Amino acid sequence: MHLRLGVNIDHVATIRNARGGDHPDPVRAAELAAAAGADGITAHLREDRRHIRDKDIERLMGEIKLPLNLEMAATEEMLTIALHYRPHAVCIVPERREEVTTEGGLDAAGQHNHLKPFISRLVDAGIRVSLFINADGHQLEAAHELGAPVVELHTGAYAHAGDAADSALLKAELDRLVRGAELGTSLGLEVHAGHGLTFGNVSPVAEIAGMRELNIGHFLIGEAIFDGLSATIRKMRTLMDKARGVA
Predict the structure, then answer these.
(1) CB 60 within 8 A of CB 39
(2) Apex CA 220: angle with CA 61 and CA 37, to 5°?
(3) How far apart are CA 70 and CA 84, in angstroms?
(4) N or C terminus of the chain: which is more exposed, having fewer CB within 10 Å?
């Protein structure tokens, strides 16, 4: 089964926003990603607009042929924006203004009463809803009960374990992702994964049975400084395909 690659273009916008103006253009990055083999574009519209801005979403919807996966917090402001633009998918993520990047999975179980009507309105609008959660049985079961058809497993702990060169911890975190994917699939959920994935750690995650999509951004944009965005995406695409046994 083809493993989809979603390319997150947030940090192209981060560089642009550092000085203002229009350069570099995240929509141009999305175009390059499409040509290099990406299956979708991911963008996180944060409350403080530190990455993508509203105008970027409008342009991505109008100019890019790939499906857009809009990451956002479960707030009324973001719900209004999602219902206005109606992207292919919305991934609901936890968000704290002071965090540098998303620090963990959404508490789908603890926020059930808040998330249930939020998810229902998105689903009723024909938007595919994903919940960004830890690979935890309680959270996966909650996602299923909430009616979200997709979960994205947070791979940050796995990535950090590899950075620390702790082989036992790395194996434990990978096993947790494997079990999470198994449970999610058994519940009828489509399973995705992302956060902190690199050339060096993507293959074991790509090999997980039932995994349907990986969303990768920061690493790709960083490596693009040295090798170019198109070449970097093509290399990630090749590693993912090789892990799945695709020639």
Answers:
(1) no
(2) 60
(3) 12
(4) C
Q: Is 71 an annotated catalytic residue?
A: yes
| Sign of the alpha-carbon dihedral angle for 207, 39, 237, 94 | negative
195 is annotated as an active-site residue = yes
Question: Could you identify the residue written with the tokens 């690199």?
Answer: 198
Which of the residue ranges 33-37, 83-87, 102-106, 204-208 would you say has the lowest mean pLDDT?
102-106
Query: Among residues 11, 144, 192, 195, which one is catalytic?
Result: 195
Higher pLDDT, 230 or 246: 230
11, 44, 144, 154: the active-site residue:
44
Q: Are strands 89-92 and 150-154 parallel, antiparallel or unpaired?
A: unpaired
Q: Which of 11, 51, 71, 95 is catalytic?
A: 71
User: What residue type is 209 in one-letter code?
Assistant: A
